[in-house]
Write a structure and sequence with these properties.
Layout: H1 2-6, H2 11-25, H3 27-49, H4 53-68, H5 71-87, H6 90-120, H7 122-137, H8 140-151, H9 155-166, H10 168-179, H11 183-191, H12 196-224, H13 227-231, H14 239-248, H15 251-272
Helix pairs in contact: 3-6, 4-5, 5-15, 6-7, 6-9, 6-10, 6-12, 8-9, 9-12, 10-12, 12-15, 14-15
Length: about 280
């Protein structure tokens, strides 16, 4: 027993060496990533905060109608945003939606191509699986540390942590959708001379669309679940009043902000539920 404990594997020390080397030698890369993500966050924030809250609520209801064609869902979305406005958490909600939308764009832009590549290359997916498992199971606070080291305090490290946690969902669901394309459809397309590009765009992606849209839904919901974690590293949004309530043991503020997060989650889930009418 003593032999095992006296010769500890250098897991933490190795990680520190790697992070120190990256900080010293890859600073221009991290600065470029931070600048790009800050621009994306700023663009979404301006777009969400520009309309008057009542105009935004009407636009959200109209978008829900365009997606769902269900009057009850539109009324639910409108009532949810009016409740948020009534509780005085409108600005924090827009800030959280900014982070959620930015994370959604990054995750889908990375996750869908990686899922397609993994579906076409089984060995690649075998290699990716333990990495994806690690990304989802490693405690979020652990990779917040290097995010702060590389990107400082603010919305960017919160976005990076969110992307790391959420990215496996669109990768796995896109892989599932592409890999589940009926063999008969693939063989029929090939027999008519379809190229690999045509096979992807005209057969595999349309067949996998429900799974990809489910991946988008999960990406949005998982990103929203990270708002409190992001607040711990300086990101603004609904996580900030939650953290303040925790620090001051303010039951009223904690319940209000927590309930608003639930309302936002319900709104987004109902708006983005693919293929349903309820």
């Amino acid at each position: 027993m003593a032999l095992l404990t006296d010769h500890k594997l250098p897991v933490g020390r190795t990680a520190k060496i790697v992070f120190d080397w990256l900080k010293a030698n890859a600073a221009p890369f991290f600065d470029a990533v931070a600048a790009g993500l800050e621009g994306l966050i700023a663009a979404f924030e301006r777009a969400l905060e520009f309309p008057h809250p009542l105009v935004f609520t009407a636009l959200a209801a109209a978008l829900t109608w365009a997606i769902r064609r269900n009057l009850a869902t539109c009324l639910l979305v409108a009532a949810g945003f009016l409740f948020i406005l009534n509780q005085g958490y409108w600005d924090e909600t827009m800030q959280s939606l900014t982070l959620v939308l930015a994370a959604g764009v990054v995750c889908m832009a990375l996750g869908v191509p990686l899922g397609i590549a993994a579906a076409h290359r089984p060995r690649l997916y075998d290699w990716m699986q333990p990495v994806l498992d690690l990304m989802q199971t490693l405690p979020t606070f652990v990779y917040l540390i290097p995010a702060i080291v590389f990107f400082g305090i603010g919305s960017v490290p919160g976005l990076i942590a969110t992307v790391i946690f959420v990215l496996p969902a669109p990768i796995r669901l896109t892989h599932l959708g592409i890999a589940s394309t009926p063999t008969e459809l693939v063989e029929a397309a090939r027999s008519f001379g379809a190229t690999p590009r045509q096979l992807l765009w005209k057969v595999e992606l349309p067949s996998a669309l429900p799974q990809i849209m489910t991946g988008l839904n999960q990406t949005i919901m998982l990103s929203l679940s990270m708002v409190v974690i992001a607040a711990l590293v300086g990101a603004s949004g609904l996580g900030v009043p939650v953290v303040r309530a925790l620090n001051s043991v303010n039951t009223a503020m904690g319940f209000e902000s927590g309930f608003v997060i639930v309302v936002v989650a319900v709104i987004l889930d109902r708006m983005l539920k693919f293929g349903g009418r309820t």
